[in-house]
Amino acid sequence: MTIPRIDADRLAARLHALAAFSTSQAPAVTRVVFTDEDRQARAWFRACCEEDGLTVRVDAVGNTFARWDGTDPSLPAVATGSHIDAIPNAGMYDGTVGVLGALEAVSALRATGVVPRRSLEVVLFTSEEPTRFGIGCLGSRLLAGRLEADSGTRLRDRDGVTLDEARQAAGFTGDLASVALGPTHYAAFVELHIEQGPLLEQRHIPLGVVTAIAAPASLRVTVDGEGGHAGAVLMPDRRDAFLAAAEVALAVEAAAVATGAIDTVGTTGVCHVFPGAVNSVPSRCDVEIDVRDIDQARRDAVLARIAAACAEIAARRRVTIETAVVNADPPAACDPAVVDALTASCEALGLAHDRMISRAYHDALFMSRVAPTAMLFIPCRGGVSHRPDEYASPEDIARGAQVLALTLARLAG
Ligand code: HGY
Ligand code: MN
Ligand code: MN
After folding, report:
1. N or C: which end of the chain has fewer CB within 10 A?
2. Hey, where are the domains in the chain?
3. Whose CA is nearest to atom 6 of ligand 1?
4. Would the CB of 129 count as within 6 Å of ligand 1?
5. Where are the alpha helices (DSSP H) in 55-174?
6. Could you give the 3-state DSSP secondary structure of residue 380?
7. Integer distance in angstroms from the first to the last C-alpha of the chain?
């Protein structure tokens, strides 16, 4: 098999060009789904795909598919891709390496002059981050048929804009039900991504073949107390919503630590205090909580402990606490044949590699519900991610794209 040659400079240049579509000052990147920056980035990406000779299709939620027809286009295609949306004050590599690296891998295969049997598709998934609509992997959930049909009107951002309103304003129309792909639509799916953890760098190993993806869950908790004048309401009379929420956040930490397993994590990453005046006792507090584990039962036990803690805090502090589970997803086991194809590609290139689990979730978590799926990790400096100092070297990125190219060729026959 001809070894595909990755144009590392072009890939690096495209990653930096994409990073410029942001509301933050470099090196930070902020690119929230369906905002102007996201729409401009999508148009730019589509132009890159067409420049590389691929045909582009976009679905009702903005998932974008750039296709290279194989010798037998009637066969289920092999897909690869990731996301380009970025949480506030993020880095420039999370997701984008898997989208532009996939485009570069397919272009490198096209340049060998060998056309695979199965078609190849580079996929840009909409809204992998939960930033705007509170739930992660929105586009891939819909592709996998794992989101309720009313999600277009039920999911709203903090300004009350529904998913349907936002997607249609961005030019993505049509029925959300048309997004779902059946279990035979793709022959396989592979996602290239930065590790978002320190293991590969610590072990001085350039590639990680992912065998499982942790089970994510998120909660939305609303605490209603009683507000009032910060000078006039005496301490014994207070029903301070923020202090109750603060105890909830500490209960999240305690519940995660109490499992005794290093794989259990709990985070309270969002906290909105109302009315948010220094001289007013908080009357309401909204928090969003993220709980994960590679063991689903252990993760669910943490959710139950958090619910029990909320009930105790509410009674003791005479506030009301409402908890809503936004998502509680099972973990994903990656497909052995795709894991083996990635492993064989690393070996064919004489590259050291390790097998590992992913603690972050990815679109691959949902693609695994409808196609044989696995992931390929490259190192990121210090394991840092979701921060402006997130960094992956051009060499590691190009190496990942080359292993991806070989793997796609293997899977596409
Ligand atoms: O939160 C995650 O695991 C992913 O980076 N969105
Ligand atoms: Mn992310
Ligand atoms: Mn990501």
Report:
1. N
2. 8-214+331-412, 215-328
3. 129
4. yes
5. 96-112, 138-143, 151-154, 163-169
6. coil
7. 11
Q: Does the pLDDT at position 309 exceed 90? A: yes
Residue whose structure tokens are 């035979």: 184
Q: What is the mean pLDDT of the chain?
A: 97
- pLDDT higher than threshold 80 for residue 21: yes
Count other C-beta atoms under 10 Å from residue 301's C-beta: 16
Q: For atom 5 of ligand 1, which residue has the closest CA? A: 360
**Helix, coil or strand: residue 160:** coil
Atom of ligand 1 nearest to the CA of 94: 5
Distance 317 CA to ligand 3 centre (A): 39
Q: Using the mean position of ligand 1's atoms as its centre, give its distance from the Cα of residue 34 in Å.
A: 18
pTM higher than 0.85: yes
The encoded tokens of residue 376 equal 């390929």
Could you tell me if 144 and 366 are in contact, meaning their C-beta atoms sit under 8 angstroms apart?
yes
- Is residue 383 classed exposed, middle or buried when 0-12, 13-18 and 19+ CB atoms within 10 A define those classes? middle
- Does the pLDDT at position 1 exceed 90? no
Nearest CA to ligand 1 atom 3: 360
Q: Phi and psi for 90 in degrees, rounded to 5? A: -95, -170
Q: Looking at the CA of 97, name the nearest ligand.
A: 3
Per the CB < 8 A criterion, the answer to whether 146 and 361 are in contact is: no
Per-residue pLDDT of 180-220, as tens digits, reads 999 999 999 999 999 999 999 999 999 999 999 999 999 99
Number of the ligand 1 atom closest to the C-alpha atom of 95? 5
User: ω before 275 within 30° of 0 (cis)?
Assistant: yes
* Distance from Cα 164 to the centre of ligand 1, integer Å: 23
How many angstroms separate the CA atoms of 292 and 73, rounded?
A: 39
Amino acid 148: pLDDT: 87
- Give CA–CA dist 362/80, Å, rounded: 12
Please say whether the dihedral angle defined by the alpha carbons of residues 147, 149, 154 and 160, taken in this order, is positive or negative.
Answer: positive
pLDDT of residue 149: 81
- Residue 156 Cα to ligand 2 midpoint, Å, equals 20
- Determine the Cα–Cα distance for residues 139 and 126; give it in Å rounded to an integer: 5
CATH superfamily for domain 8-214+331-412: Zn peptidases (3.40.630.10)
Domain at 215-328, CATH class:
alpha beta
The CB of 361 under 6 Å from ligand 1? The reply is yes
Q: Which token pair is 408?
A: 């796609």
